[in-house]
């Protein structure tokens, strides 16, 4: 018995077994009925068994045929699935991207039109989700991810060093300043709004800056930076947030630094992440180059705005970064 049966024979056999008629299988496969009959006879000759029996003008599987059909149809489904994945992954003009939700809304979406205008023939799919990509099971070209850069066995490249500092609306700041006292005392009276998924948390910041804060007001905690930024813009309290995400508000003046006394903390926060093999794809390479350039311009703007408010910055120590 041959150890390596002809794949065409197996494909013809699977179609006949599934559809029940040679003519239907021939139509689906685009070959003649005679060709299919010939291949099935050859397959039965290889195995030395009958695979079909005819019942009321319809072919039904023998026990041996049923065993072979179960194995063949499963194998062909896997092969077809792999072929579809390979075609999608190597499609030159379609980019599949995953991105951290708030970063996607506040940063990437404001810039994507420039990329689309530069590459008008490209298809683009962007999934804004907190779930990191499983590149072994999902068809995704690259992930733009917020984090510490600790992704084993993956290519990771920091594109933006974040600047984090206390921010609030001008009106809320004026209210706190009207009460008098030092900057630290004013912050002690403030309502603190927390983003629980931020890498840099209020508790660490307060210890680092020697600020004692007894929160008498109900705690406000959220899992999205976009929500805390919106609340701060409305004058609900003070946030410890990213200039990357709040840059437009700082430009408009709807948010301001709480005080230039407190320097912004700087650390690598936003990353290109993908399997090393993906970096060889032209579409990934071109998009990554575009993101790097956009990120470089963004960091220059952030530094300029920081200077305009009279604020400085310092690099964060690794031990200060905590996952909320």
UniProtKB/TrEMBL annotation:
Coiled-coil annotated residue ranges, if any: none
Pfam families xref list: HTH_1 (PF00126), LysR_substrate (PF03466)
Alphabetical list of InterPro entries matching this protein: LysR-type_TF_proteobact-type, LysR_HTH_N, LysR_subst-bd, WH-like_DNA-bd_sf, WH_DNA-bd_sf
Keywords: DNA-binding, Transcription, Transcription regulation
Domain HTH lysR-type: 5-62
Organism: Vreelandella neptunia
Family: Belongs to the LysR transcriptional regulatory family.
Organism domain of life: Bacteria
Protein name, as recorded: LysR substrate-binding domain-containing protein
Transcription among keywords: yes
